[in-house]
Design brief:
9-stranded mixed beta sheet; 6-stranded mixed beta sheet; 13 helices
């Protein structure tokens, strides 16, 4: 594959814009295709918790999770909720999801694969932020996990596997936690700090800056909705959009939760689902965490951003079309108030912002990164689930390597689309 191809990148989220930057480095001509504003509120990247957690290597499904499915169906406000009306459509994905975490060995395989993808991610993002002129948006100062007891940590399979794949951390007892986090509720008596991790101060602004950096480097942005891919034999000739065809000789599908229709247009039926997510943000909060942290009992990240204190987490399986259930965002707000008792209970509604969006997720917790079965002119880069922002830096590099026919910098077999075809 020669340099200088015309690459159409479908999707201007974190993965799309970083793929554009890296493809330009390889000497390709790039057209970004997206109907929305890069980094805008419609994008999954905008609503990200803001964690650059290179240790997020554990897939959502773990051994025994199948026993909790009845509870997920009965509790629309739980950490993972499944809407009854969507269950028949989601069932094939849910079965694959449960099977992927059926044994510890399967979860461990995913953990090793994700570690390859995420290792050094905060450093990679810091370099990108510097290139884009926004170094202040990426901080490499560690993140904290807090637990009600040491036992909650010791009994967690995820932390045993993190140790096995090479993640290191600092352990804190109750007194040490109080010194670091005086506003945190005293029910949390044990914590760990993963010092290699980082955070993004404003994911939306970061993606917008990266998009501008790509455009300054020669990329073109077309405001259109991609509807399919056009082949002539096994050669790509165009991306189909709602405003007409865009001729190209290579394409990257990085359209997040809306990638499924595009892969199906060339015969690749992949089990992509949306794990609908919510965040709540308190503007100008009086108190809060000094560190970015995740509470084990709430399954929620609390992170300072330039716009306020953001809490994000939980999963809802209900498809792309269903209306938001804003009570899920209110639960996140209530968790914040519980974690930090000194937060006022009468915060004006005007200072509380809620958001809803779509995480693109494969059932085994690993994204699809690799060539389409229909043509090596088409590269897939979607399905990152909970690691979209943190995983975008290396994914963009891998996309550029695939476009140029170069050996990828990490093994891509665990991420191959072929595992589902």
């Amino acid at each position: 594959m020669a340099e200088g191809r015309h690459v159409a990148i479908i999707g201007a989220g974190a993965i799309g814009v970083i793929s554009a930057i890296e493809a330009l480095r390889e000497g390709h001509r790039v057209t970004l295709i997206d109907p929305g504003e890069p980094g805008g509120e419609q994008a999954a990247s905008y609503g990200n918790a803001g964690w650059l957690s290179s240790h997020s290597v554990i897939p959502p499904a773990e051994p025994g999770v199948w026993t909790k499915v009845p509870g997920y169906l009965m509790d629309p406000l739980g950490p993972l909720a499944i809407r009854w009306s969507y269950l028949p459509k989601a069932l094939p994905w849910l079965i694959k999801y449960l099977l992927s975490g059926w044994t510890e060995a399967r979860v461990e395989k995913t953990a090793f694969a994700l570690r390859d993808l995420l290792k050094d991610a905060p450093l990679l993002h810091r370099k990108l932020a510097e290139e884009a002129g926004v170094p202040e948006l990426v901080e490499r100062n560690g993140v904290m996990h807090v637990f009600p007891s040491r036992g909650n940590f010791d009994n967690d399979l995820g932390w045993r596997l993190r140790r096995k794949v090479g993640v290191e951390w600092l352990e804190l007892n109750a007194d040490e936690m109080r010194q670091r986090e005086p506003d945190l509720h005293p029910r949390y008596t044990f914590g760990v700090v993963v010092e290699e991790a980082g955070r993004c101060r404003d994911p939306g602004a970061y993606v917008a800056a990266l998009a501008q950096h790509a455009l300054a480097g020669g990329a073109k942005l077309v405001r259109a909705k991609a509807t399919g891919l056009k082949l002539s034999g096994n050669k790509l000739v165009a991306v189909l959009t709602d405003t007409g065809e865009i001729a190209c000789d290579a394409a990257v599908v990085a359209a997040g939760a809306r990638s499924k229709q595009l892969t199906a247009s060339v015969g690749d039926s992949l089990p992509l689902e949306t794990e609908r997510g919510y965040h709540v943000m308190i503007e100008n909060p009086e108190v809060g965490p000094r560190s970015s942290m995740m509470a084990s009992d709430a399954k929620m990240v609390a992170n300072w951003t330039n716009k306020g204190l953001r809490a994000a987490g939980t999963v809802e399986i209900a498809g792309l079309a269903a209306a938001p259930n804003w009570k899920r965002a209110e639960i996140l707000r209530d968790h914040l108030l519980s974690m930090f008792p000194k937060l006022p209970r009468d915060i004006p509604a005007s200072r509380i912002k809620m958001w809803f969006g779509h995480r693109p997720s494969m059932p085994d917790g690993r994204p699809c990164i690799g060539y389409s079965r229909a043509s090596r002119d088409i590269v897939y880069a979607f399905g990152h689930g909970h690691v979209g922002l943190v995983g975008s830096a290396r994914t963009g590099r891998l996309v550029a390597q695939l476009l140029s026919g170069k050996p990828p910098e990490i093994p891509l077999a665990p991420f191959s689309p072929d595992r589902f075809l």
